[in-house]
Amino acid sequence: MKIGIYGGTFNPPHLGHLTAAAAVIATLKLDKLLLIPASIPPHKDLPAGSATAEQRLEMTRMAGEQLGLGSKVETLDMEVRRAGKSFTSDTLAELKAQFPEDELWLLMGTDMFLSFETWHEPEKIASLAGIAAFGRTKADMEPQFSAQRDKLYRLYPDARIFTLTVPGVIDISSTELRERLASGTGENLLPPAVYGYILRNHLYGTDVNLKSLTLSQLRPVALSYLKYKRIPHVLGTEQEAIRLATRYGADVEKARVAALLHDCTKKLDMPEQLALCRQYGIELDELEQKALKLLHAKTGAAIAREVFGVDDEIYRAIWWHTTGHADMTLLEKIIYLADYIEPSRDFPGVDDLRRAVHADLDRGLLKALDDSIRDMQQWGNPVHHNTLEGRAGGHHLPDPGGAGPDPGADAGLRKPRHRGEEDQGPGDPGAGDRRSDHPGGLFRHRHRQLQHPDQRSVRLCGEAAGGAGGGEAPAPGGLPGRYLGAAGLRLHLRPCVQRRGPELL
């Protein structure tokens, strides 16, 4: 196997790094590329205001995913974990022990190549890996590259050196990029998710209020919460939500915001989801405590309100997007269905469902609920009561042969429920079953009958100040503080208090 090693401070990783990496992968026909952020670079001091090693590691991971090469590109934390300066010779020795039979190639740009003999233990480096140096143009490479190549062969006779021109590499230094970010520009030089991560963590002098983001800012921030493979789904949901909101007279901007944030906690694992549920006072039954896919709608709604300051309408649309309920608003229906039929969805009957939804929102919702119930039964999964109650609401719709409702009117009077992908709705009376990414695989999760988001107080479990237990409608109002791993969420929550509705934050 031929393995490329691309190290650096990645402060931050930008499109110049990615275009170079992609070109070298193709030219050298690498089987694998390892991205390795340095913890403490030996050749220079990190400037004031730099991201931490852990933050640079996370941004590098996001950037690597943007190459779209799956497991062929991997980001390693070996230098971040290792104490002291991040010497390349130590890293290569560790990798050689791990891959003794594989061919290692160390990737570097022009400046690093021209100063290679000044590195720590250059002879050891040259003995462990080939050197693949890339320049942007022939002018970069000749005569400098030729002279340096000859020099290194004299110094290290057994060295393997490969130099290549990489046209199209985005020419930007990290220093210049950090200056641009501090001045409010530079986003076009970064992978979107990396830019979003920088904004939400206020790195490199950026100082945006997450509760007042423009849509152009919210999109990359929302993407920074996602696993790479989920990005097409979220962008597709946004696209479909715009289409449905326009068709049925809903607020297009609210539809876009809800769509962009609806899966913002999707990548959290079970312990993280449960921790967030406890702190936000979200009551879970026995099945929900075991079924990961049932939780993210609620926790996502909580984060959308706490971190991004969304209003009640958007909050409820996110909360209910996996289960639906008996009295869905127009926006709730739109997000529920947009999530269900967005362009990347591919399952038997999805095209028929799309046509039904675009012809008549309520009839399309009924069909979605019917399909979900049927799928759940076929898969041997119990149907959640919220889904059944939502479907029962459809009895108020006109008979199939009658005239449909005015497409421009609020189509949200009756509410069928839908598939079973995730979790329930706010303070929810229980969540509906839903498929994960496609019909089928539904899970049942019941909540103790809580009140609908726009009604009365809810009983939710949570840890009160001094102890655990169920209290009346906990509504922790706390703010960022607790680190929740992969999602990078930090939340501090207050003890449970009396609140109206399932307001989690």
Lay out the secondary structure.
Blueprint: E1 2-8, H1 15-28, E2 32-37, H2 53-66, E3 73-75, H3 78-81, H4 88-98, E4 103-108, H5 110-114, H6 122-128, E5 130-135, H7 138-141, H8 144-155, E6 161-165, H9 174-182, H10 192-200, H11 215-223, H12 231-248, H13 252-261, H14 270-279, H15 296-308, H16 312-319, H17 330-341, H18 350-359, H19 361-378, H20 385-393, E7 459-464, E8 467-472
Parallel strand pairs: 1-2, 1-4, 2-3, 4-5, 5-6
Antiparallel strand pairs: 7-8
Helix pairs in contact: 2-10, 4-6, 10-11, 11-13, 12-13, 12-17, 13-16, 13-17, 15-16, 16-17, 17-19, 18-19, 19-20
Could you provide a short overview of the structure?
With 505 residues, the protein is an alpha/beta fold.
Order of strands across the main sheet: 3-2-1-4-5-6
Low-confidence runs (pLDDT<50, min 5 residues)?
398-505
Distance between the termini: 51 Å
Number of strands: 8
Biggest beta sheet attributes = 6 strands, parallel
Helix amount, in percent? 40-55%
Rg value: 26 Å
